[in-house]
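To: structure desk
From: M.T.
Subject: fold request, one chain
Message: Could you run this one when you get a chance? Sequence is below, nothing fancy, just the single chain.
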Amino acid sequence: MARGAKTGERKQRSAINDVVAREYTIHLHTKVHNKGFKHRAPTAIKAVKEFAQKAMGTKKVLLAPELNAAIWARGVRSVPHRLRVRLQRRRNDDEDAEEKLFTYASFVNVKASDFKGLQTTVVDSEE
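Reply: Done. C-alpha cells follow.
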C-alpha cells in the first residue's frame, strides 16, 4: 500500500451534543509581554478570546461583563498576571446562526496567591 493511503475514512466527532463547562487558568502575563502600555488590556481581551476559541472549538466567543471588568480593573497597563476563567460551550438559539454552538467566558474569582496547583476542571453548567 502506498504511503499515506488510508483504507478507511476517519470519523469526524460532532460537537453539537457537547455542551460543557470547564475552568481554565490563563497566563496573561506572557500574552501581553513586550506590548506598549496602551495596548496591554486590549491584547489581553483578544488573548482570552483566542484561548477560548482554541479550547472550545467555536468561532463565536462572548465575554461576561465581570471578566471584562476584571481585566480592566487595574487600568489599561496593569493587567493581572493570571486569570481563572469558566468557559461554557452553549447552544445557539438563533435560527439563522451560522454555528450551532458558541462559547461564553466568565470570570472566576481566585486570590493571586491561590493559583498554584489549580488544574483544568470540568464543572456543571448552570443554564
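Reply (cont.): The CA atoms of residues 53 and 59 lie 6 Å apart. Let me know if you need anything else for the meeting.
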